[in-house]
C-alpha cells in the first residue's frame, strides 16, 4: 500500500489573498468573541481571547504584514503545544491536500508578508501562500522582547 505524503493545509482569505497553514498545527477556527486588551504589546496584538479557559494572544496578521487592521471576526487558534496564539482571518476558504512536489518555493523578501511565506501552490485557479509558522512565531516572540 502506498503511503500518502500529502500535507493538508487550511486555506484562508486575508483581504484579496489566499494563505495556508498546515492543518496539523491548528486546534480550531472560531468566531472572535470577547477580546481582552493588553497594554504594552505590539500593535498587531489585539489582546487576549479565552478558549476553554486558556488565554491565547490574538494576532492580526493583516497589521503584521500590511499595517492595516482587519475587520474580520474569525480566528485560527493554534494547538497549545505549538503556541498560545490565534490569528484573525477573513474566512476559511478550503482544506487542500497538497503533494510536496506541488509546493513552489518563494524567494525571501524583506517585507512583512513575503518574509513569512515559504512557498505557494496553485489551488482552484489561485496562488495560495504558505505561511512559515516558525518564522511568524519567532518574529512575534522577538517583538515581545
SSE blueprint and pairings:
Blueprint: E1 7-14, E2 17-22, E3 26-31, E4 45-51, E5 54-59, H1 61-66, E6 74-78, E7 85-89, E8 91-98, E9 104-105, H2 112-115, E10 117-123, E11 126-131, H3 133-144
Parallel strand pairs: 2-11, 5-7
Antiparallel strand pairs: 1-2, 1-8, 3-6, 4-5, 6-7, 9-10, 10-11
Describe the structure.
The protein is an alpha+beta fold and 145 residues long. It contains three helices and eleven strands. The longest helix has 12 residues, at 133-144. It is globular and about 45 Å long. 28% of the residues are buried.
Q: Assembly state here?
A: single chain
Task: Please count the helical segments.
Answer: 3
The assigned structural class equals alpha+beta
Give the overall shape, derived from the CA principal axes.
globular
Spatial strand sequence of the major β-sheet: 8-1-2-11-10-9
Helix and strand pattern? EEEEEHEEEEHEEH
Largest sheet: 6 strands, mixed
| Terminal-residue CA separation | 49 Å
State the low-pLDDT regions, or none.
none
How many strands appear in the DSSP assignment? 11
Query: Into which percent range does the helicity of residues fall?
Result: 10-25%
- In what range is the share of β-strand residues? over 45%
Mean pLDDT level = 88
Roughly how many Å is the radius of gyration?
Answer: 15 Å
